[in-house]
Design goal:
The structure holds two protein chains of two kinds. Chain A is built from nine helices and two strands. Chain A is 66% helix and 2% strand. Chain A has one domain. Chain A starts with a helix and ends with a strand. In chain A, α3 crosses α4. Chain A is mainly alpha-helical. In chain B, 19% of the residues are buried. Chain B contains four helices and no strands. Chain B has one domain. Classes of the chains: A mainly alpha, B mainly alpha. Chains A and B meet through α2, α6 and α9 of A and α1 and α4 of B.
Chain lengths: 253, 98
């Protein structure tokens, strides 16, 4: 095929794509005009039904909790896959974290970066736990909170403390926490089944006051387990990459 | 459609609709510009930093479109975790090239 012919094939494809795209755009509902029934129904009944004022969390962990289990296991499998792909291969060896070599010296973090990272680590941990434990009352939730918790580990690493990073999140511990997080979510669903209810049905007392931290039954509990899962999964992923970058050498150069 | 209008709540913090539209349009244009800037950055390290700024911008965009939960996720993933992973990868590649 000559370049000229190729251009025509490309242009024909692009024209078709543009036509379908514009056709689709023309059929969209107006901006801000939601046509479906479910959003309006959920808005009306969610707080009364679940006693959770964080309606997004109520949707994620209650109305479509089954979808969320699947999403959580996507992350679980991704982190597991990362560990498998980045395992220590034949011909690779890890250097002693304490030892510095002439050809590869890890440049120390600048004082400014260290200071900012150290100042923010504590507040970030606090914010993370706040988010994980307040899914039922606010736009917080286990996913956001777990990510913020994992960010605090990145901060520790940025502060130049690789060894501390590993001490705070040893692989065995992050593995276990991740498994507990993923398993806990699924186990809540199975517990409901054991009680003769549908999978993931909210079986805990909902509490009386919407917006109280103790309200909403399993929504708060699921958010906690999701927080554990997400924090551990991201700690594992970042940790693997840090190790690949700093410690693993190819062959015996 | 009409029922969601009825449910609209006006609080002392409610921004006039016109002002909110202006804010949303501004943020959409800025996001498009920032995305283009990410693509046009040729130096990978600089590209990661621009990407991180783009993540912050997207987070503000989600906030303006009333999705504070997505804002929190985007803020951590887009501006911290993803750039950190990319920078670590770049460091690894650079080391191997030496």
């Amino acid at each position: 095929m000559t370049p000229g012919q190729r251009r025509w094939v490309f242009l024909a494809g692009m024209a078709g794509l543009a036509a379908f795209y514009l056709w689709g755009l023309a059929g969209l509902p107006g901006f801000g005009h939601y046509p479906g029934p479910y959003g309006d129904i959920i808005n009306r009944v969610a707080v009364a039904q679940t006693k959770a004022t964080g309606v997004v969390s109520a949707v994620n962990f209650e109305y479509r909790g089954f979808d969320t289990v699947g999403e959580e296991f996507i992350l679980f499998v991704a982190a597991a896959g990362m560990s498998v792909v980045l395992r220590q291969l034949r011909g690779e060896r890890e250097r002693d974290p304490g030892a510095q070599r002439e050809d590869w010296q890890i440049p120390p973090a600048s004082d400014a970066v260290r200071l900012v990272a150290l100042i923010f680590t504590g507040p970030i941990v606090l914010l993370g736990w706040f988010l994980v434990s307040h899914a039922q009352t606010s736009p917080a939730g286990g996913f956001q909170g777990g990510l913020v918790l994992a960010t605090s580990l990145v901060m520790i690493y940025l502060a130049g403390e690789y060894l501390l990073f590993r001490r705070v999140s040893p692989v065995a511990v992050t593995d276990a926490v991740e498994a507990v997080g993923a398993g806990g979510f699924a186990a809540i669903g199975v517990t409901a089944v054991a009680l003769g209810l549908p999978y993931l049905k909210n079986f805990l007392p909902l509490g009386s006051a919407p917006g109280a931290v103790s309200s909403s039954g399993t929504i708060a509990l699921i958010s906690f387990f999701v927080g554990l899962e997400v924090a551990a999964a991201f700690a594992l992923i970042v940790g693997e990459l840090v190790e690949q970058t700093l410690l693993v050498q190819q062959g015996d150069r | 459609m009409s029922s969601s209008r009825l449910l609209a709540v006006v609080t002392p913090y409610t921004v006039p609709a016109g002002l909110m539209d202006a804010l949303q349009v501004t943020l959409l244009v800025l996001a498009a510009a920032a995305a283009t800037a990410v693509v046009l950055s040729r130096n990978p390290v600089r590209q990661v930093i621009v990407l991180s700024g783009y993540g912050v911008l997207l987070a503000v965009l989600f906030l303006a479109f009333q999705a504070p939960d997505v804002t929190l996720s985007e803020l951590t993933v887009g501006s911290v975790v993803l750039p950190a992973l990319l920078l670590l990868t770049l460091a690894k590649i650079r080391r191997r090239e030496k």
